[in-house]
Amino acid sequence: MHKIIRTYSIGGMQVNWYEMTVNETIKRLGSQAETGLSSSTAEKRLKKYGKNQLTEAKPPLGIALFFKQFKDFMVIILLIATFIAAYLGEAVDAIVIVVIVLINSVLGYLQENRAEKSLAKLKQMANPVAHVKRDGQWVLIPSSEVVIGDIVRLKSGDRVVADLRIITSTQLSIEESAITGETLPIPKVSQAIKQQQLNIGDQINMAFMSSLVTSGHGIGVVVATGMDTVVGQIADLIVQAPTQKTPLEKRLQNLGKILIFVSILLTSLVVAAGIWQGQPVYQMFLSGISLAVAVIPEGLPAIVTVVLSLGVQRMIKRKAIVRKLSAVETLGSTSVICSDKTGTLTENRMTVVEIYLNQRLFQVSGGYSFTGDITGARNQAEDKMLNRFLRYGSICGDAELLEQNGEISIQGDPTDVAIMMAAAKKSTSIIERQQVTKITEFPFDSNRKRMSVVINDGNQYYSIVKGAPDILLSRSDRIEENGRILRMDQVRRAKIEQVLNSMASKAYRTIALCIKPLPHGNQIKAEHAENDLVFIGLIAMVDPPRPEAKKAIEQCKKAGIKTVMITGDHAGTAHAIAKELNILPQHGQVITGSQLDQMTDQELIDQVDQIYVFARVTPKDKLRIVKALQANGHVVAMTGDGVNDAPALKNSDIGVSMGKTGTDVAKEASDLILLDDNFATVVSAVEEGRHIYENIRKFIRYLLASNVGEILVMLFAIILGYPLPLLPVQILWINLVTDGLPALALGMDSAESNLMEQPPRPINEGIFARGLGFKIISRGLLIGSVSFLAFILAYQNGAQSLEYARTVAFMTLVTSQLIHVFDCRNEKSIFDRHPFGNRYLIVAVLSSFALMIPVTYVAMFQAVFYTVALSLRDWMTIILLSSIPTIVFGFTKR
Fold first, then answer.
1. Overall fold of domain 320-346+545-677
2. How far is CA 457 from CA 320, 382, 593, 834, in A?
3. Fewer beta carbons under 10 A from the terminal one: N or C of the chain?
4. pLDDT digits (tens, 9 = 90+) for 128-172
């Protein structure tokens, strides 16, 4: 694939953008580097060229979904039997069966259509966004709305959203293996390359759609979108992956196969026994097929999909986007949540509160605002030092000061924003920043834990370095005091470490600032710019814990879920926050990244259950932590937002990325995206995962117990030599009115109050675990028994007809199932929970029961379903017998 040579066509002419200069490219595309496109121009281009997306396989059309319902093997057999019935002169039976099959198909179509729409909406919400310049302002837009000529900002962790010509590049490297097959990142430049017929891999001033920014940042102009991009041109080589079934759906699919085998065996037994006892062959054949169709829960997969998608929609309302349906099942088994501190457990609204400079502490007031003051300067010289300190701190960062409609705001990384906000409290610092020429930048890297810029400040070159205090202290051999550069001796170093410990004990996050005078600003390497530094001072920030985080952590404890804090901050800061949030128990351990490096994998596995806080760790350490927890049998949810978090997110059982601050790479590696970057949302998602799984168990319990009852009532009659209690059309009608709406309503049931007070579900737990198999068989046995008893009592009443007895059995079987559905709302007993708390279930049951009334009392339907009108006394008997299964097991609580 790396041999591909790419040219672009404009007005029928082939264009090689890499050969053009930046100015030529922008002019040719009708754009402006400073202001980007206007909103109106972008809108026109979007209409002209279409959305920036690859052509995908179209979802099934409505008519295709409808006819898909007739592909089921048992439905095909039933339709064949219907034709036989018509051939034998049983036209009424044939018509009724066809009508029931059609109604079932319509219901199945509606369920699947809703699932398709829900999943399409989910996919749309998970789409990446692009940072583009419109009307002179940087804005975030969906990647599908990017158009040719848009000015796009790139930073580490982004997916390139279209084909771009690089305009500016600061240590920018892009990994293009998806296109070229080469795994090593390619450093990018902005200069034109005057060479024709250049391979994709050699076009180092271009960025291609779907490639990955691995480091640095830059700006590019869009030269192609959608199917006109390189990826679009080779889209025919990309096979759309089929929708993957969740582990639960696979288990249910296997369950369906087992049920088909069992039902065919049992119905064959019923048919054979009936024929042996002299029942008409045709009637037994049709009864057997009808019974098999009724017994096999063919609607189960559709209901599972609908319930999963409805659960996903509920999660979206709770600020969590599920990218993979399999995550819904796994969420309920989560036993450990490993959470970043900043922004997830805290508000991610950094505010500078203290500055250590010139061996003194300066207090910063005003909080997260431009108002306030910085106090503590003893003289004008010290005030001047403070101004320069804040100015350099603002320069060494990516925050931007914006003014719109007379209002000032700051955009960028929260740490950089906090420093610039503190500088804004001394307005001259911001103005002076503009007089500095930035020559080179070495962007922040979570492994290096620092960033630096090389500047020209009044014909004097400096590197300004900002980062973790312990890292920068180890690289500093001098310190600035009272305007003089002095040697960093042990006394001064100890004093700084003492201040750091004091700040950490107050849960402050600390940043160090250093400088290094340079003879010139050209061709400076990062290692040279960030070594032999002059230590200037410390910045202490506070990032208050989220108020809802503490409550969510307590909820986790009740649910048997351990919360682990992972942070790059100082151990003292992490310890203080962990104590405040009640993460750290009395004997819980706090370890640092350096201690982690000294531990073998086995030592980590042995100790990890006692560790609650990992401080000063890098993203690569997260992977070791995940594997150690998994080795001890835990199901791990891991949060992350950066490029380097991707391996840990992929290897964890539930990868959780940040929707606001997370990179595109982290989002693509994750199973769950938090729209609000909030720890409480992770806990809400776990609760929702448990809720969905329990609802699926509820309707499986209901469907299978009801089907067991239907088989047994027929089997009892055949074995004991009675006439068939139910006719084929009655069996099919029962299946129609009891299986669909009530089962779906159970899937929409509210969570039980003690859901988050139970331990995590074992990841390999079978669907019939926790007594579900016993509940299905025992309830099914009683439902079948009381229905058969109702038939015997009515049949032995000599004054009545066989049709009367069948009508009583018919109504008893339906009524017992519709009463039993309320019992299925609780794991133990119907009396442990308000039986009428699910309004959807009440409507579904009333609707199902309403369908039985005309069948019993309207003459036209009586002729079709072979029923007779029942008296009030009959109904009292039916309700009494139908209530027995629920009452019996309501008191036994099993």
1. Rossmann fold (3.40.50)
2. 47, 20, 37, 73
3. C
4. 788 999 998 888 898 889 999 999 999 887 889 999 999 999 889
